[in-house]
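Exercise 3.2. Students should predict the tertiary structure of the chain below and write it as structure tokens, then compare their answer with the key that follows.

Predict this chain's 3D structure.
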Amino acid sequence: MSSTIEVPREELLEATLHPELGRTRGRRRVKRKTVNTVIWFIALLALTAIVLYPLLWLVFATFKPSSEFGQHLGLLPENPTIDNFVKVTEGIAGTPLWRFFANSFFIAVMAVIGTLFSASLAAYAFARIKFKGVGILFAAMIGTLLLPFHVIIIPQYILFNKLELVDTYVPLILPKFLATEAFFVFLIVQFIRNIPRDMDEAARIDGAGHIRIFTSIMLPLIKPALITSAIFSFIWTWNDFLGPLLYVNSPEKYPLPIALRLYNDATSTSDYGATVAVSFLALLPILIFFIVFQRFLVDGVATQGLKG
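Answer key:
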């Protein structure tokens, strides 16, 4: 069927009898749309500037000497210098800067692997396997989202301390392999529930069990959800401060968030220039990671509407 645009009879008659008047009104409509577009563009540009201002301030602050912090509040440094980067590349507390990056990267990568492995298995069990108490267990898991982390700090620390695992990365990594991240389990469960069960039944007729169905059918289909979980898990672990502060004591094992504290606690006067420089360098991996995988994040959100 061909679509037609209905024009009011009065405007059609007026445009036929007075073509100049019709062209004038058409130009007015175009001008009004152009003005509206310009207004929206200016508003979005101003909003973007407000959102990006802290990042711009951080970039320019890396070139400020420590003496300008607290005195010069402008965006641009009065006496730009690269001494902050030179200082942080030399390391602190006898530990080079690359070691802090390597520690954070190791913890974040292991956390991503553990989260994807355990959360995907738990999500498949909740979404596809029928067993007694599945509803109660799923509700209890969701209830852990309401439980503050600070409530379990003391018993968890006592447990790992008795196991002599303090000052190691085990307390930071082991819970990721035990499906303790209820948010990611819930995310993948909702994704799996939108996948038609006909695929499971067809595979089961061919003799496939739960392991084969999970590895051959579910994992390829839930890839967007897995990548979304990987992005958030990496960012949250990379920025985690409280966990490493509790369990890591040796400076050579510090991740970046704890290493930042050394530039403020090592001497009686805080080195704000070095702190800002390290903060900027610590932000780069997260920014690169997000830019590389952002299209998968969009795909994960877009395919949430998949229906059987």
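Discussion points: The chain has a mean pLDDT of 81. The first helix runs from residue 9 to 17.
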